Amino acid sequence: MNEEMNEVKEEPQEIKETTSEITEEPQEERFTINDLPGVGPATAEKLADAGFDTLLGVAVASPSKLGEASGVSDSVARKIIQVARDKLNMGFETGLDLLKKREQVIKLTTGSSNFDALVGGGFESGSITECYGAYGSGKTALAHQLAVTAQMPREQGGAGGAVVWIDTEGTFRPERIQQIAEENNLNGEELLENIKVVRAFNSDHQMLLAEKVEELINKENVPVKIVIVDSLMSHFRSEFIGRGTLSDRQQKLNKHMHVLLSLAHTYNILVYVTNQVMSKPDTFFGDPTEAIGGHIVAHASTTRLYLRRGKKGSRVAKLVDAPALADGECMFYITNKGIRDDV
What we know:
The protein is an alpha/beta fold. It folds into two domains: 86 residues, Orthogonal Bundle (DNA polymerase, domain 1), CATH 1.10.150; 241 residues, P-loop containing nucleotide triphosphate hydrolases (Rossmann fold, 3-Layer(aba) Sandwich). Helices cover 45% and strands 19% of the residues. It is built from 14 helices and 13 strands. Helix 8 crosses helix 9, helix 11 runs parallel beside helix 13 and helix 13 packs parallel to helix 14.
């Protein structure tokens, strides 16, 4: 009888040991910002309020920005960032590893097969695509098309997610989204429900809104797949006038572009920006049209396209710069159904 009692008593101990073995490994996996050295509850709360509520967000931050958000010194911020990077194994990778990662890239269709072919199958997530051109060249029309296709399933050339539209010129038109939806047998109200539109009233507001996108993703769980900025340089161009302000403008613009680039890389988002142009009076041969923003915008943009009017109501897209694509041109049309190869 005593032996039976001993056997019964031993069983719970075995269960306890097994349970502890099971729970030991997940604790390693559940490493959060609260476990980082020098990050207590108060610091973690400050970091979360500033949008650094994930290890990846901390790992890709700069020491100065992290220190400013949390109130710690630069040396402590560097240690925090280094530990976060170590936990995420953010070291050197082989080309084969990167090739496998490229399989996660989503290519959004433009609605035109000619246009898709020009940009290697569609606009890529994880990068910034810039379209510049004169008024009426189709930049905003393309933005409306992408706002629709981004919500379509991946097998149909979409991304199956939500849209953030930062509007600097008052160009977003919900009626246009409804029109494209009706012509393609889609639900216009559902499409509009998944588009988060916000009007930027100056360059500082525009920069702040770009930083707030991370909060939408992490705190409100909005599955953002594309961020549209239409247009990128409108406020910067009007607020910084003359050569004396050029340095200040470019510094702010550089910071803004890096925030957008960080969003694209961190969350595998397509960032689509439209840009204004200027004419170069010293150009005697060829098209004098040039994008504004200088080298800052040019270097930050992964893919650059120049849009212009063509013959008989068509538009022409010229690929100016892309990492792995040859220069080329294609023709497309703006129709009631959206961007198409023909009318």
